[in-house]
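Q&A log
Question type: sequence-to-structure
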Amino acid sequence: MTATWRLYAAILKGAVLNLNQKILELFDKFNRGSFSSRNRFVRSATWLAGADDETGEMSKAEIARHAEIAAGGAGVVITGGAYVSRDGKSLPRQWGLDSDARIGDVAALAAAVHRSGSKLVVEICHSGGQRDTRVASPRSFSPSGGVHPGCDIESEPLSPEEIARIRSDFVASAMRAQKGGADAVEVHGGHGLLLTQFLSLLTNRRSDGYGGSFDNRMRIFCEILSDIRSALGERFPIWFKISIAEGVERGYKAEEGLRVAERLLREGVSGIEVSSGTMYAPAPNSPSVVGISAGGSEAPFREYAAELKRFASREQVIILTGGLRSLPVMAGLHAIEACDLFGMSRPFNAEPDLVNRWYEEDSRPSACISCNACLRTAEYGMVDCPVMRDRNEGFWDPL
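Response status: OK
Response body:
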């Protein structure tokens, strides 16, 4: 047990401070640099499969789901990853932010989320070689070409010109998010998508300035940050989501993932959302960890966040995502300043009004049982919780 976790355990036992006070502070207004939120609870990015497959337009139903979670108390709502170009689309019915026609989607989202006093963060991404076969056309690209782990499609190696084009696509999508009224933009650099593919020796066998040494392999992260910063200005918040460890044999380890995040902090990123694992990692190392229960198995990525918090300035935000289910655990992490904000995804699928329930003094842990059944509901409609939601009546009804 590390020193950080020993201190955290002592806090939970009431040996260090009044835990109830720290729980109350989770609901207080948060300010950091140019970003503020009405509380410390974040709806982490979630693919909802609610967009038009041809145009990438977000449906009214998906916009309503974001609005529902904001009305349910989440201080920050992060959209599911929006692809920056058609060759960067990874999943069916994924939202796209690859054309100016989609600025209206952002405006509608911003209006819906802001109506409840919450902040909107737009996540943007490129799939690289990690693509569902139903969307992998006409061409797929990855750092070195070939078949991506866990997929069965062939991708072409990226040329320097195509890398420059993808960088420009990230900038254009970020500008659309800003123009539509988003409060921040988040670049998805984890979970096996394109930026992760540059980090991993499993998928990056390049011999140019983007391959070989670890500094070369993280180069595109820093370039995209610099490109977006130049376009959006110094005050607009730019976050990155990072998989701190790849989670597979011969993949990059936590020491390297932390180096990437620390480098981005030095380069002036506004926030780091701490996650880990990839979609092709075995179950214990998946970003959507199964079998989480309130208490001991919560917050599996907490040590990574605590390490990064040491490097973050007073202007930068560290968001911990993954396996958070209860107020005492989050209050304990807040007490030792392991992170600033707390991201949850599946718990909001189960209970969109979770934060309001907690605020109204029903402090029981999230009803989410971490079964990942919600991920399978995309086969017949928009992602939902089949355990908690009454699909016929259309309202949330706990068991």
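Response note: The chain has one domain: 3-396.
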